[in-house]
Amino acid sequence: MYLRDMSLRHFRNYESVDMTFKNGINILLGKNAQGKTSLLEAIYVLALARSHRTSSDRDLINWDATAAQVLGCVQKQSTSVPLELDLGKTGKRAKVNHLEQAKLSQYIGQLNVILFAPEDLSLVKGSPQVRRRFIDMEFGQMNSRYLYNLSQYRTILKQRNRYLKELRNHKQSDLVLLDVLSDQLAAFGAEIIFERLKLLKELEHWAAAVHKEISQGKERLTFKYVNPLEPEQLASTDSIYEGLKALFEQKREKELFQRTTLFGPHRDDLQFFVNDKNVSTFGSQGQQRTAALSVKLAEINLMKEETGEYPVLLLDDVLSELDDSRQTHLLTAIQDKVQTFLTTTSLSGVARQLIHDPKVFHIENGKLLE
Ligand SMILES: Nc1ncnc2c1ncn2[C@@H]1O[C@H](COP(=O)(O)OP(=O)(O)OP(=O)(O)O)[C@@H](O)[C@H]1O
C-alpha cells in the first residue's frame, strides 16, 4: 500500500497544506523546528488515530484553532481508501470511505505504518514499557482482534486495579467480584499472550535473517518472551488462561498487599539474544543498534505477510543515527519496495548516493516551498 495524498487543516504548525506523494522515497527536508516531524506525525495519526509523540489530541490542534483535520487517500493493490480524521477539543471522529466508524478498531489497520525514530534504537536497551508499546502498536495494526482484546484487557485491568485499591480489610464476599474480574482479565490476557507469541515467532524469523546479513553471518539473533508462566503453559489460549487464573489465586495476598495487578501481558517483556547472550546486558552498542534495525526491517516483511500489503515506512531523522553500513542496509532493503517518508535537515553521504529519484518537499515554518 502507499499513501497517495494527504491534506492537513490546522494540524500542529500547519494551517492548510495539500500534498501528493510518490510511491517511493519522499524526503521531508528543512531546518529544525519547521514542521518535518509534524508531517510524519500526521501520517502516523492518519494510520493509528493517535500520535506517537503525545497522548493528548489537543496538542495536535493548531494553537490558534479549535479543531484539526487530517485527510488522506491510501492506494492498495486493488482499491483506494479515503481516510479522514477530525480532531476536536472534546473528541475525534474517524471516517473510512466517508463513513464514520463507531469504533476506532474498525478504522485502524486501513493504513499500516512503521515508524522508526532515534528512540527506537533503544528498543533493546530501553525499558520493558518501550518494548510492550512496540509490540502492541505493531500487532494492533495487523490484527483488529488483537486490538479489540487489548482494549478490553485495559478496561478490565483498570477496574481490577481500582478494586484492589479499594479492598482494604477485605471480607470473603468482596472477593467474589475480584474473582470475576480476575477471570475476565485472564481470558483477554490469554488471547493477547497467545497472539504475541505467534507473531513474535514470525518476527524473530525475519529479524534473524536481517541481523545475520548485517553481521555478515557472524551473529544469530533470537527473541525470548518473558513472563512468569511455565513454557508448557504457553501452548494454547486455554492453558495460558488457566495459568493466569492460578497465578491470581496463588498470589492473591501479594496483589492485595501491593494493591495492583502483578501478572498479565501488561507486565511481560521481550528480550533479545545474540549468539545466546542477552544483547541488553552483554551486547555492544553496535550490536544493540543492529538488533533494533533488524527488528524494524523484519516488521516490514511481517506486515506484508499478515496483511498482504507492504506498510508505509516513516523514518524520523534516523539516518544520521546510523553508520554507513547500517544506512546502506536500510536503504537497499526498502528502496523500490516500500513507500518511505524520511525527515532530514540535509541529505548527504550514503543517502545521497543510494536514494535515486526521491520526491523532495522543502519545509519552512509550516509551509511547503515550491
Ligand atoms: N499545536 C501546535 N500549534 C502550532 N505550532 C505547534 C504546535 N505544536 C508544535 N508546534 C510547533 O511546530 C514547530 C514544528 O515542530 P516539528 O517537531 O515538526 O519540527 P521539525 O521540523 O521536525 O524539527 P526538528 O528537526 O528539530 O525535529 C515547532 O516550532 C513547534 O513549536
UniProtKB/TrEMBL annotation:
Q: Does the keyword Nucleotide-binding apply?
A: yes
Q: Which GO molecular function, any one, fits this protein according to its record?
A: ATP binding
Write out the annotated subcellular location. Cytoplasm
Task: Write out the entry's keywords from A to Z.
Answer: ATP-binding, Cytoplasm, DNA damage, DNA repair, DNA replication, DNA-binding, Nucleotide-binding, SOS response
Annotated RecF/RecN/SMC N-terminal domain ranges read 2-345
Asked if the keyword Ribosomal protein belongs to this entry, the reply reads no
- Pfam families hit by this protein: SMC_N (PF02463)
Q: Which residue spans adopt a coiled-coil conformation according to this UniProt entry?
A: none
Q: Which InterPro entries match?
A: DNA-binding_RecF, DNA-binding_RecF_CS, P-loop_NTPase, RecF/RecN/SMC_N, RecF_2
Amino-acid positions noted as binding ATP in the UniProt annotation, renumbered to this chain: 30-37
List the CDD domains.
ABC_RecF
One biological process term in Gene Ontology: DNA synthesis involved in DNA repair
What are the annotated GO cellular component locations? Answer: cytoplasm
Q: Which Gene3D superfamilies match?
A: P-loop containing nucleotide triphosphate hydrolases, RecF/RecN/SMC, N-terminal domain
Primary location class: cytoplasm
Which family is it part of?
Belongs to the RecF family.
Instruction: State its role.
Output: The RecF protein is involved in DNA metabolism; it is required for DNA replication and normal SOS inducibility. RecF binds preferentially to single-stranded, linear DNA. It also seems to bind ATP.
- Protein's name according to its UniProt entry: DNA replication and repair protein RecF
Please tell me the species this chain comes from. Secundilactobacillus oryzae JCM 18671
